[in-house]
Amino acid sequence: MIRVLAPVLLLLALFLPHAQAQVLSGDLVQGGMVIGRTLPGTKVFLGDRAVSVAASGVFVLGFGRDHPPTAKLRLLGEDGTASESVLDIRQRTYRTQRIDGLPPKMVTPPAEVLQRIRRENGEIARIRAVDTPVTYFEDKWIWPTIGPVTGVFGSQRILNGKPRRPHFGIDIAAPRGTAVVAPRDGIVRLAEEDLYYTGGTIMLDHGHGIVSVYSHLSRIDVAVGDKVAVASIIGAVGSTGRSTGAHLDWRINWFDQRLDPALLLTGMPAAGG
Ligand SMILES: [Zn+2]
Question: Residues 237-269: pLDDT tens digits?
């Protein structure tokens, strides 16, 4: 069940005349993406991390699956003024998902592929670290494909009785060949037919560390460097890589922080029609 959350608008420190002025919109919750607006030229820090601010004054923050209950936001104005606020990050409980009877090689990769996995993960991490000065993340997101949500963000997976990494995406079941569209404008940073875990995989860069990933694709219609517009087709649903059936696995990061795509959207529209 996706939790549908109306965007919360927070007005913080707006009464201050100078660079402290900021507006945050989005969910201050584990897995949440929050868009901020401040005066151009202001420097923004979340904890120790310097956050890029666009010429328009827009910035974005993300709070990962296990983010602690508070975060410190600091703004330094061009005029030398400074402000600091403590954000309360709502804590979530995640469900446990047990999957038994998987072939052992789907649970523990064979030794001969470990180097390949390390190389592929290194490339994915490199792309997630990129801080591109575009703000495509700002506008409304749409579903990349339509179908039943069969896996949710954050669930703890126990595969054949062994606890594994949590599930960081959402899974949308759809027949092989169903179109996958860009849920927002983006720049294609990765377009690979056959990664070990995720098979046919696309990564889109939406700017300022917001990167989304589409996995298990049966077809890829874009190339690295392409600029894709929201709602344009980028590939098709499949079951490539370590997958047990046709579905789209959709993930979003803010740098190394894992975000919940479901928080960006309202409920899934009815399939078909
Ligand atoms: Zn998945």
Answer: 999 999 889 999 999 999 999 999 999 997 777
pLDDT digits (tens, 9 = 90+) for 10-58: 444 444 444 456 789 999 999 999 999 999 999 999 999 999 999 999 9
Nearest to 92 by CA among 156, 138, 145: 156
pTM of the shown model: 0.88
Same domain, 44 and 148: no
Mapped onto helix, strand or coil, the DSSP state of residue 135 is coil
Q: Are 97 and 65 in contact (CB under 8 A)?
A: no
Residue 207 domain boundaries: 96-264
Give the torsion sign (CA, 8, 269, 138, 206). positive
Residues 106 and 224 in one domain: yes
Give the closest residue to 193 by CA, choosing from 212, 172, 218, 176: 218
**Residues by chain with Cβ below 5 Å of ion ligand 1:** 151, 169, 171, 249
The answer to whether residues 81 and 100 belong to one domain is no
Cα separation, 55 vs 73, whole angstroms: 19
Residue 70 sits in the same domain as residue 104: no
Write down which residue in 69, 88, 107 finishes a domain: 88
**How far apart are the CA of 70 and the centre of ligand 1, in A?**
28
pLDDT at site 86: 95
What spacing in Å lies between the alpha carbon of 260 and ligand 1's midpoint?
12
Sheet holding 33-38, edge to edge: 9-12, 22-26, 33-38, 58-62
Distance 167 CA to ligand 1 centre (A): 6
Q: What tokens does 206 get?
A: 């939406």
Whether residues 108 and 142 fall in one domain: yes
Structure tokens at 202: 């696309």
Q: Return the SS3 of 17.
A: coil
CB 228 within 8 A of CB 244: no
**CATH number of the domain encompassing residue 83:** 2.60.40
